[in-house]
Amino acid sequence: MSVGVVVLAAGEGTRMRTGKSKVLHAAAGMTLLEWALSASASLDPDEVSVVVGYQADEVVANLPEGTTAVVQEPQNGTGHAALVGLTGFTRTHDTVVVLPGDMPLVRSETIDALVAHHREVDAAATVLSVECDDPSGYGRVVRAGESIAAIVEERDATPDQRSITEVNTSVYVFDGRLMADALGRIGTDNDQGEQYLSDVVEVLVEDGRLVGVLVADEEEGLGVNSQGQLAQAAAVLRSRINAELLDAGVWMLDPSRVYIDAGVSVAPEVEIYPDTYLTGDTTIAAGASIGPNVQIHDSQIGERSTVVNAVLRDAIVGADANVGPFAYLRPGAVLDDDAKVGTYVEIKNSQVGRGSKVPHLSYVGDATIGEDTNIGAGTITVNYDGYKKSHTTIGDRVRIGSDSMLVAPVRIGDDAFTGAGSVITNDVPEGSLGVERSVQKNIAGYAENRRQRAEGEAD
């Protein structure tokens, strides 16, 4: 049987107060629209149609390949939007799933179960509902036994209907052969003067058709209409991600203080400490220890490596490496196996070779460091002359003295040394010592002379 999916994503979301289309707001690493599309992906739909309106160009730019966008203009309600959505299909499908673009908590397993139930009872339409302790603001499900007689929006409901706690989630499955005709007969006799998608139930019931219902967990019915609801949804999504990782063998000291985006890959046997943020295209290999107080974005961490109190963006860390505390790996930073980047060290667009160490208080930018090299505390690669950036090359088994300035472009050969406090402006050959500093001069009696001079000025 063919399956089509319609995602309703035309609304502005004025209560978000950002000026950005509501469905483009992100929760746990994916936009609300991406969560909706992800929830329906397990159906392997033949066609997906996304109804756009507000900031249509921006929304379309975020759609995956193979998705069709159709514009709802004017925006005359959810019923009208669903009808517009059908125009994005090239043919009539046996089953059509309609999803709001602002409900990120609906699980793919629930969508699968909804479609299965719809087919089992041979319904014209099937509605996903939830039971709410506080149903305020939601359309009430008026039952007729195991089927639905009507869905009544709160603003149009009677006092008795408002006491109903089963509410509509706005997730539907339709018999595609009946859907267009039924949607075309929805009226606008309501408080908003719009075509409510929920009114299709009454149309189908009057035709003598069965409208089924499946009850989901309450949290899946949460729609996002404000920043508060977005934060609430994101918290639920993160808790789901963490629960799956815990089940897979990841250890977390306090899961409530670990923030991991969808799409991040964390292997079993990883240890994660509080206040860790893993975002973007990030991969953490088995045995790594991450945190506390770590932000890692679009980066790779190798097996058994440790990252503590650090920020990494677009960085690659090999196996058995150590980062932090208080380190910053900027885009292009690459640490080979067994490398170390320590306290108050910043690495940018540079490679630190196998077994090499940058332990303290250093900046390494636009540089290549070989294997088994040690960079002394306070070392800076002076890579920018005010016009262009130049490269520093440091060989294998090099010892850079503390407080060295390496003025690029410069090359330090294998097994070479630089003297502490040197400003190195020329290449240092292999096995050589590069020193640049004036001869020390000691002035005897300086302290007493200075004291007497100060006292004389005071008089």
Annotated CATH architecture of the largest domain: Alpha-Beta Complex
Give the CATH level 1 class of the largest domain: Alpha Beta
The overall strand count is 41
| Terminal-residue CA separation | 102 Å
Which blocks of ≥5 consecutive residues have pLDDT under 50?
Answer: none
What is the CATH topology assignment of the largest domain? Answer: Spore Coat Polysaccharide Biosynthesis Protein SpsA, Chain A
For the report, how would you describe the main beta sheet?
9 strands, parallel
Helix content: 10-25%
Q: Please work out how many helical segments DSSP would assign.
A: 9
Oligomeric form of this entry?
single chain
Mean pLDDT: 96
Strand fraction equals 25-35%
Shape: elongated
CATH superfamily heading of the largest domain: Spore Coat Polysaccharide Biosynthesis Protein SpsA, Chain A
Integer count of domains: 2
Structural class of the secondary elements?
Answer: alpha/beta
List keywords for this structure.
7-stranded mixed β-sheet; 9-stranded parallel β-sheet; Spore Coat Polysaccharide Biosynthesis Protein SpsA, Chain A; elongated; UDP N-Acetylglucosamine Acyltransferase, domain 1; 459 residues; 2 domains; alpha/beta; single chain
Helix-strand layout with pairing:
Blueprint: E1 3-9, E2 26-27, E3 30-31, H1 32-41, E4 47-52, H2 56-61, E5 67-71, H3 78-86, E6 95-100, H4 108-121, E7 125-131, E8 140-144, E9 147-152, H5 159-162, E10 166-175, H6 176-184, H7 200-206, E11 211-216, H8 227-247, E12 251-252, E13 258-260, E14 265-266, E15 271-272, E16 276-279, E17 283-284, E18 289-290, E19 294-297, E20 300-301, E21 306-307, E22 310-313, E23 316-317, E24 322-323, E25 327-329, E26 334-335, E27 340-343, E28 345-348, E29 351-352, E30 357-360, E31 363-365, E32 367-369, E33 374-375, E34 380-382, E35 392-394, E36 399-400, E37 405-407, E38 410-412, E39 417-418, E40 423-424, E41 433-434, H9 446-458
Parallel strand pairs: 1-4, 1-6, 4-5, 7-11, 12-15, 13-16, 14-17, 15-18, 16-19, 17-20, 18-21, 19-22, 20-23, 21-24, 22-25, 23-26, 24-27, 25-28, 26-29, 27-30, 28-31, 29-32, 32-35, 33-36, 34-37, 35-38, 36-39, 37-40, 39-41
Antiparallel strand pairs: 2-3, 6-10, 7-10, 8-9
